[in-house]
Write a structure and sequence with these properties.
With about 600 residues, the chain is of the alpha/beta class. It folds into three domains: about 230 residues, Glutamine Phosphoribosylpyrophosphate, subunit 1, domain 1; about 190 residues, Glucose-6-phosphate isomerase like protein, domain 1 (Rossmann fold, 3-Layer(aba) Sandwich); about 160 residues, Glucose-6-phosphate isomerase like protein, domain 1 (Rossmann fold). It is built from 20 helices and 25 strands. The strands form four sheets. An eight-stranded antiparallel β-sheet has the order 3-2-4-1-10-9-11-15, covered by helices on one side. A seven-stranded antiparallel β-sheet has the order 5-6-7-8-12-13-14. A five-stranded parallel β-sheet has the order 17-16-18-19-20, with helices on both faces. The radius of gyration is 25 Å and the shape is globular. Bound molecules: 5-amino-5-deoxy-1-O-phosphono-D-mannitol. 5-amino-5-deoxy-1-O-phosphono-D-mannitol binds next to α9 and α17.
């Protein structure tokens, strides 16, 4: 959350940091700001999107700047709470991502010492502390300040006495350094700098880095100089353009056949699973993730349990990290648990903490992640990269499909390893999975049919999504997509569960989306539809092509292409995404940047 970028070099910094900051706007977008080094430091900040700040930004020739786009934690979105924050005489400017847990105590002490505060932000203590400790060396001043604060943070600082220097540090939130030619960059993720460089340094927690146009100095937490490693990362070419689509979300929905295809090349040809040491007897599997990634994990549970008979649990990262140790650890190592962390961004604070907790307990950890080089990929034992390309819309779409696909392939791999699938069966699975891009294309080609359903929802008080078995997680995902971008209240339920409470809410203004695939739960689902219709709730049902029963008992229906029910979550997901998109579009919400949300959730 919050995007940070800094530039020091031989060019005008202003345009470069603004351009880079816009690539990070998905991290937070309630206000933004920039600090530039003129004779003194010049700070410009404004509530609202980056364009608001840009309108009032005077032209500057400075070649040193830091900038920030904010996702509010402490203090409402406002000009005063926007970053950069500065000390009283504007000698130090700081941008911060994260939260300072003990800021109230520090603020109280500083106020007693006579320091004045102008915002409600926890981050404002940082420039005041740094200025207080400053005695000519900015690295030392930051280092001394860090011993006062507790929390999680990425901090970048500039000082009026250091015309070409940015000092930065991270603790549990992301920070990268981009190396250029007589210019260097500081940022909260690589997307901000890929246009300028693919040479990246990834500092570890609590390492302080001093960046000038010609030098990078890295220090450990006792200020001992450290060697650093420069890595070359892959350039993403297609990022940050909408390519004729009205929103990134729509573009990303339509990119799904390609995303699945590219991921298949990775999974079946490059085959990262062969490189993972999964030949031991896996006692149980624990899947851990947040939000949409959690829903992919729930689908994965059904597939892996069906294929391997290995018990799979799925937990929210925020719960798993504080839960009792994983069962089986400390027991026989040959049947220890496998922990699969799923995170599109690879930076989600809770999922990272869960990965660390699992490692501490001796589990073998695998990350399913879309961002190579992201924090989680650097901390776990094995990585499966989903090749979706950068996802900019806050609502996860193409990464959900590629996460599910990775879990299906992981399931078949484990089943083959354990002897529950033979080689011809493995190949059959592969060939069915390879057909997914064309099935998804068929749903995309029916987008007008999905759009025509919108009038059923725009006045809804609440929308219920129901499914059973492998499509129960799709009910959860459908509800999440709808509430996230349309702000209509929505809930996902196992279809059999409505009669245990939620039926009390049903009526004419609570439409239902039911997923009725012809698996062993089909007849039960049809009965559930009857129950809901009997309470006057309009039911729109997703069914398989040629279904004879659904059209008779539903108010509306949508046929997905012919597919084995076990693979139906893929086309069903695309229906859910498009329906939410068209409803949100009709309601005029900010689809790519829904209110109160951010793409990367780097705070607890
Ligand atoms: O980057 P991650 O996959 O770890 O993110 C997890 C959730 O924050 C994310 O899936 C969120 O729920 C999406 N915005 C939903 O569309």
């Amino acid at each position: 959350m919050c995007g940070i970028v800094g530039y020091t070099g031989n060019k005008q910094a202003q345009d470069i940091v603004l351009d880079s900051l816009k690539k990070l706007e998905y991290r937070g977008y309630d206000s933004s700001g920039i600090a530039l080094k003129e004779d003194k430091l010049v700070i410009c900040k404004k509530e609202g999107p980056i364009s608001n700040m840009e309108e009032i930004l005077p032209k500057s020739n400075s070649s040193l700047a830091i900038a920030h786009t904010r996702w509010a934690t402490h203090g409402v979105p406002s000009d005063a709470n926007a970053h950069p924050h500065a000390d009283a005489d504007n000698s130090v400017a700081v941008v911060h991502n994260g939260t300072i847990d003990n800021y109230l105590d520090i603020r109280e002490n500083l106020e007693e010492e006579g320091y004045k505060f102008v915002s409600e932000s926890d981050s404002e203590i940082l420039p005041i502390l740094i200025s207080k400790y400053y005695a000519g060396d900015l690295v030392e001043a930051l280092h001394n300040s860090l011993s006062d604060i507790q929390g999680i943070f990425t901090i970048a600082v500039i000082h009026e006495n250091h015309p070409d220097e940015i000092v930065a540090v991270r603790h549990e939130t992301p920070l990268i350094i981009g190396l250029g030619n007589s210019e260097n960059f500081v940022a909260s993720d690589i997307y901000a700098v890929l246009k300028y460089t693919q040479q990246i340094i990834y500092p570890d927690d609590n390492q302080i880095v001093r960046v000038t146009p010609e030098s990078i100095d890295l220090f450990d937490s006792s200020l001992k100089p450290l060697e650093y490693v420069v890595e070359t990362v892959e350039k993403y070419t297609e990022v940050a353009e909408k390519g004729g689509y009205e929103h990134f979300m729509l573009k990303e929905i339509f990119e799904q056949p390609k995303a699945l295809q590219d991921s298949q090349t990775e999974l079946f040809i490059d085959n990262p699973l062969e490189g993972l040491s999964l030949n031991w007897k896996i006692g149980s599997i624990s899947i851990v993730a947040c939000g949409t990634s959690y829903h992919a994990g729930l689908v994965g549970k059904y597939v892996i349990e069906q294929l391997t008979a290995i018990p799979v649990s799925v937990d929210y990262s925020s719960e798993f990290r504080y839960a009792a140790p994983v069962q089986g650890v400390g027991g026989i190592l040959s049947s220890r648990p496998l922990v699969v962390l799923i995170s599109q961004s690879g930076e989600t604070a809770d999922t990272l903490a869960a990965a660390r907790a699992a490692k501490q307990q001796g589990c073998y950890t695998i990350a399913v992640c879309n961002v190579p080089g992201s924090r989680i990929t650097r901390e776990v034992d094995g990585v499966i990269i989903t090749k979706s390309g950068q996802e900019i819309g806050v609502a996860a779409t193409k990464t959900f499909l590629t996460q599910m696909q990775a879990l299906y392939v992981l399931g078949t791999h484990l089943a083959f390893n354990s002897g529950s699938l033979d080689h011809p069966q493995l190949k059959l699975w592969e060939s069915e999975i390879r057909k997914l891009p064309s099935k998804i294309t068929q749903v995309l080609n029916s987008s007008e049919g999905i759009k025509s359903l919108v009038p059923n929802f725009v006045n809804a008080k609440s929308v219920f999504f129901v499914g059973r078995n492998i499509n129960y997680p799709l009910a959860l995902e459908g509800a999440l997509k709808l509430k996230e971008i349309s702000y209509i209240h929505a809930e996902g339920y196992p279809a059999g569960e409505l009669k245990h409470g939620p039926l009390a809410l049903l009526g004419e203004d609570t439409p239902i989306i039911a997923v009725a695939m012809q698996d062993h739960t089909y007849s039960k689902l049809l009965s559930n539809i009857e129950e809901m219709s009997a309470r006057k709730a309009p039911v729109i049902t997703l069914c398989q092509k040629g279904d004879q029963h659904v059209p008779k008992i539903s108010d509306k229906y949508f046929e997905i292409p012919e597919i084995d029910p076990v693979l139906s979550p893929f086309p069903v997901a695309v229906f859910m995404q498009l329906l939410s998109y068209y409803i949100a579009h009709e309601l005029g919400t900010d689809i790519d940047k829904p209110r109160n949300l951010a793409k990367s959730v780097t705070v607890e």
